[in-house]
Amino acid sequence: MKELKALNKSLLLMIVVMLIFSACSSRKYTARPAAGSTIAAKAAEAMSHLKSKELYRFINDWTGVQYALGGLDKTGVDCSGFAFLLQKNIYGSVLPRRSRDQADVVNEKSIANLNEGDLIFFSFGGNTVDHVGVYLNHNFFVHASTTRGVVVDDLSIPAYQRAFVKAGSLKK
Question: InterPro entries given for it (predicted)?
């Protein structure tokens, strides 16, 4: 009987040891990044490379503000209103209020030659400019999205590539 109890204790101890070692196995598990997290990480990196700390603070302060057609404050803002406010508060420049009019006051540049603060224009509803954003760096821009509010986005996303009309810096 003593031998049976000793054997049971040995078996129990061996099972516990095996469970411990199997729980601490060297197998590596990799988690998949959440959808969009790669873009979010790249957007955060683009933000960290901004030359203007005032621009960084402005974007940070406005990120997530809801879209509102004709809006010009933190209860809601549209794309041209956001570009208007950003240019006024950060660069001291006065833009027209509508995106299609804003497109008329830029010296056109290729995307490869854009600088921080340059404007980017899109047409999602036809041939005329109907959306504007502000270029940051590394192919990222900030804008007031109709669905997500003020957000930093990747210009290389196919929807933006298809809708791109022109970009440039303000005429002096």
Answer: Murein_DD/LD_carboxypeptidase, NLP_P60_dom, Papain-like_cys_pep_sf
DSSP β-ladder status, 76-77 and 72-73: antiparallel
CA gap 9, 132 in Å, rounded: 74
CA distance 127 to 140: 23
- Find, among 135, 35, 44, the residue nearest to 91 by Cα: 135
pTM metric for this prediction: 0.78
Measured CA distances, 54 to 50, 57, 87, 109, 117 (Å) = 9, 5, 12, 24, 12
Active-site residue numbers?
A: 79, 131, 143
State how far the Cα of 128 lies from the Cα of 113, in Å rounded to an integer: 23
In the chain, pLDDT over 90 holds for what percent of residues? 71
pLDDT tens profile 37-52: 688 888 889 999 999 9
Q: Number of C-alpha atoms within 13 angstroms, CB side, residue 8?
A: 5
Q: Helices (H) and strands (E) in the chain — how many of each?
A: 6, 8
Sign of CA dihedral 172, 162, 112, 152: positive
Cβ atoms within 10 Å, residue 154: 16
Compute CA distances 128 → 68, 99, 121, 144, whole Å. Answer: 20, 10, 10, 18
Beta-bridged to residue 145, according to DSSP, are: 149
